[in-house]
Sequence to fold (364 residues):
Amino acid sequence: MMMPKSVLEAAETDDVPVLRVSTKYMQTFQPVKPALGGKSLLTHLNSRGDLDIYTVGTADQVHRFRREKGGNAPYRAQSLGFAADQIFAYSEAGIDLDNPNILGLDPKGQLTLATYNAEVGIYAQRVCQPSMASQAINRFLAVRGLNGGVYANVVLEDGSLANNFLKAGTTEWAGAEWVPVAGPDGNPVKPKTIAMCANDPVQSALFAIGPDDEVLFSEESFRTSTMRVLTSSATLAAAEHLSVVADADGKLNIFASSAADGSLWWKKQKQYSTDGIQFEDWQQIASETPIRITALYAAQCFNGLLQVFAADADGRLHRAVQIGESRTSLRWRALFPIGQSVDNAAFTIGRTSAGYAEAYTATP
Fold:
């Protein structure tokens, strides 16, 4: 079913860059409004249960796109009055869902925190990182754990992976510095990419693609983290892209694209294990047409089953979904393309309070 164009505020044809959206109603992306760069995209549930879209645009200015009252497009764009890159939004218990806290990076590679002042109606931003942190940050990811703590993993300027976390309900870091994450050999990991998942009341799982394209995993994002190898020469020997999601039972599910041919693979946590978190073997997910995956985004469906979105080199988004009569007889429907190719700078997937996934992209 196509969403009627009358409910969208379409951008003029010469407006670039532009934010585009695809929801449960659509099989194609529809233009919304200029997104001012679309350098990165992030979704966050607001108080109505809709997804707000946060984007980093020109001069790293942060903007928000919000559907007008009633939950239907058109979207309203708003500058939040501060600059940051690689943003992450989260709400503490009791904090306005419409104005979440936003972590990001400043031009010096320092982690910043922007918080909303309701009395004056603006965001205030400050540097917020461990007090003895000295290296600049090249890349960071964060997730709000089930216990309310905000777990941050960073790739520092020397390429090493390190972590720390904000204590629940505070802006206090658990330690005074970024703590290196050790690899299987005991040395600091220098990853190509990282992924995180809030899957445990106390910790949040950490994943990475290592220097030799191996998939690495740690059960926790904490000071004592040590990663182990999950790739296998018999199935998926080397990975290029990674996404992780917890299923309806709280079990971890890993999606990775093969570094050899770009194919999609899936690995799920065992239902029961006696020695920490263990995983089943890798399984390949078929595709209707061969594609070279350039990005992966995994999410739960409205029915609690899983789905994964894959972007290809032409900017087209593909989707695979779990099907089956019961959780013991699940299988994967092959990846199939969603709509047209879209020249994009960034993709992101969000999940509404009703459980439906919405895909967003911003053109360069």
Remarks:
- Residues 1-21, 23-29 have pLDDT under 50 and may be disordered.
- The first strand starts at residue 19 and ends at 22.
- The chain is about 0% helix and 45% strand.
